[in-house]
Write a structure and sequence with these properties.
Layout: H1 2-16, E1 35-40, E2 46-47, E3 50-58, E4 62-71, E5 85-86, E6 95-104, E7 111-121, E8 126-136, H2 140-155, E9 181-184, E10 191-194, E11 206-210, E12 215-221, E13 228-231, E14 237-240, E15 245-248, E16 256-257, E17 271-278, E18 283-284, E19 289-297, E20 306-314, E21 319-328, E22 335-343, E23 352-359, E24 362-371, E25 391-393, E26 399-402, E27 407-410, E28 417-421, E29 425-434, E30 437-442, E31 450-453, E32 459-461
Parallel strand pairs: 2-8, 12-16, 18-24
Antiparallel strand pairs: 1-3, 3-6, 4-5, 4-7, 7-8, 9-12, 9-15, 10-11, 12-13, 13-14, 17-19, 19-22, 20-21, 20-23, 23-24, 25-29, 26-29, 26-32, 27-28, 29-30, 30-31
Helix pairs in contact: 1-2
Length: about 475
């Protein structure tokens, strides 16, 4: 009976546990009238469950802002070719030291991410603020729940039955002073061990990581930085910051040791995107257009070639309507290259879109208005012509083609390219087999009859029944 009562109390306690994030946002912050900033979460924070992103998105002539994220590489760098994923739609109300948006971490896998706030003004200028790394750790909610249950049981006066452990035999051990040691501080899983006593991955690179086994303290920095010289179990020696460790023993008796001088700054490339435009200045629904993106190397070393991602985003919904890629060759310092992208957008005409080009952490944006053109315009119906004898006609709802990516559509089999059909399900009108290839006709209201081929593996339904 006692176990049943405890079980029911545990169920009741679990029902009242709130969803929380890793820590509360700072309650005492200095008001900022204008700015672009994320104040919570901070770098190296862990987050889980449902929680607010706190900060400021307030500029003169504010148009809108949004949040986006990308998963980091194992070395905590931002992947070069991975596009940023929108976390919110465009938000238009300014926020000063408040909740920018409420995000649910359970929609992404546990791991390390970068979170970016992008603010766009009415003159088309954009400003961003990036926080990284942020660890998403939904599994930690389990440990938090168990702790809340224990505290609730203690408040109710219920003491769990402790396991029965054997009484250890006392042993007489002479007291030997323990050497001073360093271990990762609470909530820190690994500590960077650096070449010298400063946080700079170029001038003072990371040599190794100190795990929970800790390291032997050998000395203190003569630069008055408070850093310690430590020896790891592997024998490697390096410097650790006092802000991320806890010490045992008496570190005050350690000798002062001069750290190595920082390394000279390396020659590094610095690729930026500093221009974007639409050739001709306008874009029309369903009509291919070209986008020019200027890539420049403002660094001091040759930049290797890479690819640039171009996305078309509908601002009213935050939906990515099209994605394409372009490449640039290796660039000498102070040189640039113009990438020409082919783009076709067939959704959300007569609305404002934004083109977003990105490479690594660099991005450039351009807003434009997508004209309707012939999209959703009923063409003059052509005269009824009997289908060719070799054409298979389908009944309504009989045959569908499910496109997983934009697909070329032609005015006739082997004819003129008309447009690219968007990635979605299309109802097929008929089928013709020419030169060993299956051509399916589709009748979008805004385009009239168009033909696609090489999509046999994407068909659904009975696409082979002849109907006259």
């Amino acid at each position: 009976m006692q176990r049943v009562v405890r079980f029911l109390m545990l169920v009741a306690l679990l029902a009242i546990i709130p969803v929380v994030s890793a820590q509360e946002a700072p309650s005492d912050t200095t008001p900022v009238r204008l700015g672009v900033e994320i104040t919570f979460p901070q770098p190296v924070n862990e987050v889980w469950g449902l929680g607010d992103v706190v900060g400021t998105a307030a500029l003169e002539s504010l148009s809108f802002y949004y949040l986006e994220y990308v998963e980091l590489n194992n070395d905590l760098s931002i992947p070069e070719n991975a596009p940023w994923i929108p976390a919110t739609a465009a938000l238009r109300e300014p926020v000063i030291d408040g909740a920018l948006a409420t995000l649910d971490t359970t929609t992404v896998a546990d791991g390390l991410y970068a979170l970016r706030l992008v603010v766009v003004t009415t003159d088309g200028q954009s400003y961003s603020y990036t926080v990284q790394p942020i660890r998403v750790n939904n599994e930690r909610m389990i440990a938090y729940t168990e702790r809340v249950i224990e505290e609730a049981l203690a408040a109710a006066g219920i003491t769990p039955e402790p396991p029965t452990l054997p009484t250890p035999e006392p042993t007489a051990t002479p007291e030997i002073p323990s050497p001073p040691m360093a271990y990762p501080a609470a909530g820190v899983y690994a500590v960077n061990v650096r070449y010298c006593d400063m946080i700079d991955n170029d001038l003072c690179p990371i040599q190794e990581y100190m795990d929970t086994r800790g390291g032997l303290l050998l000395g203190r920095s003569t630069n008055a930085t408070g850093w310690y010289l430590v020896r790891l179990p592997s024998g490697l020696e390096g410097w650790v910051s006092p802000t991320v460790i806890t010490t045992t023993g008496d570190p005050n008796g350690l000798p002062f040791v001069p750290p190595p001088s920082p390394l000279p700054p390396p020659a590094v490339p610095n690729v930026i995107l500093n221009g974007i435009g639409i050739r001709g200045g306008t874009a029309t629904c369903g009509v291919p257009f070209e986008v020019e993106v200027n890539v420049a190397n403002i660094g001091s070393a040759v930049a290797p070639g890479a690819s640039v991602t171009l996305q078309d985003v509908n601002l009213s919904t935050g939906e990515i309507t099209a994605t394409t890629y372009g490449t640039f060759p290796s660039l000498n310092p102070s040189s640039n290259f113009v990438i020409v992208f082919g783009m076709t957008t067939t959704a959300y005409y007569n609305e404002t879109h934004e083109l977003r080009a990105s490479v690594g952490s660099e991005s450039v944006r351009l807003q434009y208005f997508l004209n309707q053109g012939s999209c959703n315009v009923q063409p003059t119906p052509p005269p009824t012509v009997p289908p060719p004898a070799d054409e298979i006609m389908f009944n309504p709802q009989q045959c569908f083609i499910v496109l997983t990516q934009p697909t070329p559509a032609f005015g006739a089999p082997y004819g003129e390219l008309i447009t690219q059909l968007a990635a979605r399900a299309w109802e097929a009108r008929s089928l013709r087999r020419i030169n060993g290839e299956n051509w399916y006709s589709i009748n979008p209201p805004e385009l009239g009859i168009v033909w696609v081929t090489r999509v046999d593996r994407l068909t659904q339904g009975n696409c082979g029944q002849i109907t006259r």
